[in-house]
Amino acid sequence: MVTPETTPLRRSRTDYASTPMQPPTPQPAPRRRSRRGIGIAVTAAVIAAGVGFAPWIPSLNGVGAAWTSFLPWSALLLVLLGIAALIRRAWWGLAAVIAASVVWSAMFIPQLTLTAGAGQLTDLTVATQNIGATNDDPVSSVRQLMATGAGLVAVQELSVTVGDDAAAVLDGQYKYSERVGTVGLWSQWPLGQVTPLELGLGWPRALQATVHQHDGDISVYVVHLPSVRPGDTAARDQGVSELAALVAADKAPRVIVMGDLNTASTDPALKALTGELADSRQSVDGGFGFSWPATFPMTRPDHVLSRGMTVVSDQVLAADGSDHLPVVAGFSLQR
């Protein structure tokens, strides 16, 4: 006989019903495609468009002009985007950054290999610099220009004190010269008619002169165009338009435009001018040739543009007290 103490307990259905059930183990949700790279990809696409379509970007009250003037530095933005894509493992973004880098390379890599002017003799050397109205040592600045052996020297921002000191030194080496406003031209050869030019300003800050060089006359423009400020590009745009019209109407077989144009050649605002003339830096490639600011050059507002001659060389000299670096270009007069 089985005693109650040894009888196994039986659980009723009610007992089972009252026992709490264990929650089912949650199943992982289906993995959705990562969207982490979309923002990077969109940004890279915008940069690529800004580089590829730079020649058609309007001024946009100075914003577009600033972008196109500092255009080569867009590479730094692409590097930062690439690093962000790698850190986040955003492969879509990385692919877009690589594509944008191809666009940048197609535009700028050809400028980084010296190709033009190899083996050609320099028949004419010219130098230009905005020596700075507050330059503490303008004499050293112009002496550096003279040391290049340039037959033509163009100087901008010849303020009252700076201009007189600089001119006194230049006059000692160059027999022929002309000053208009705050710009000046010094020449080894006689000067013909000199015409003051306003170019978007209410007073002359540019000049045109005929240089009677022994291989033939050269029409030379020394220019300091109006500055570009946020929301104010009208004067600069007018100055470029007037200068381009003068150059287009100039019948001289050889033309040189030198000076501070206050924007880079990648700025579409200069298209009317660079369509008539060859940019010395772009003609020889070999680098960007940044000339401003002197402490850490980031863009090239200082130019030597020409027609009727072959550009042989273009170099930017070291800082000498001005906030602009000097630009020196060499030409072959045999086309």
Description:
With 335 residues, the protein is an alpha+beta fold. The chain folds into two domains: 38-112, no CATH class; 124-332, Endonuclease/exonuclease/phosphatase (Deoxyribonuclease I, Chain A, 4-Layer Sandwich). It is 32% helix and 22% strand. It contains ten helices and twelve strands. Strands 3-4-2-1-12-11 form a six-stranded mixed sheet. Strands 5-6-7-8-10-9 form a six-stranded mixed sheet. Helix 2 runs antiparallel to helix 4, helix 2 (38-52) runs parallel beside helix 5 (91-108) and helix 6 (138-147) packs parallel to helix 7 (160-171).
Question: How do the strands and helices of this protein lay out in sequence?
Answer:
Layout: H1 13-18, H2 38-52, H3 63-69, H4 74-88, H5 91-108, E1 124-130, H6 138-147, E2 152-156, H7 160-171, E3 176-180, E4 183-187, E5 191-197, E6 206-213, E7 216-224, H8 234-249, E8 255-260, H9 271-274, E9 278-279, H10 280-284, E10 302-307, E11 310-316, E12 327-332
Parallel strand pairs: 1-2, 7-8
Antiparallel strand pairs: 1-12, 2-4, 3-4, 5-6, 6-7, 8-10, 9-10, 11-12
Helix pairs in contact: 2-4, 2-5, 4-5, 6-7
Radius of gyration: 33 Å
Secondary-structure element pattern, one letter each: HHHHHEHEHEEEEEHEHEHEEE
Number of β-strand runs: 12
What is the CATH C level class of the largest domain, in words? Alpha Beta
CATH topology of the largest domain: Deoxyribonuclease I, Chain A
